[in-house]
Amino acid sequence: MKMSERYQYTILCEDRQTEQFLRRILELQKIPSRKIRIETAEAGVGSAEAFVRREYPRQLGALRKSNFNRRALIVCTDADKWTIGERKEQLKKGPDR
């Protein structure tokens, strides 16, 4: 068993297109789909970008409670009208920007 297969992966993203993109990257790394958990905003229900900002602290907290023991969190959000640096700062600040 490869070291990467020992991990449990959580993908936090805005939409199904991004989810499929990230799944494909993990597949290319030979990560089995049973090792991947997806958290995606529900289509047509509020802002997907706000969902990621709201869910990020919860997912990070869950990761920290597990002592980072063989877990990985992959977060992806569109930059939209912001720069990558501005988007990073928004994630750090949490759901209220």
Task: Describe the protein's architecture and organization.
There is one protein chain. By secondary structure, the protein is of the alpha/beta class. It is built from three helices and three strands; from the N terminus they run βαβαβα. It has a three-stranded parallel β-sheet with strand order 2-1-3, with helices on both faces. Helix 1 links the parallel strand 1 and strand 2. 9% of the residues are buried.
Summarize, please.
This protein is of the alpha/beta class and 97 residues long. Helix 1 links the parallel strand 1 and strand 2.
What is the topological layout?
Elements: E1 8-13, H1 16-28, E2 36-40, H2 48-65, E3 71-76, H3 84-93
The proportion of residues forming helix, as a percent range, comes to 40-55%
Tally of strands: 3
**Strand residues, percent:** 15-25%
Largest sheet, in brief, is: 3 strands, parallel
Structural class by secondary-structure content: alpha/beta
Cα Rg: 14 Å
Q: Biggest sheet: strands side by side, in what order? A: 2-1-3
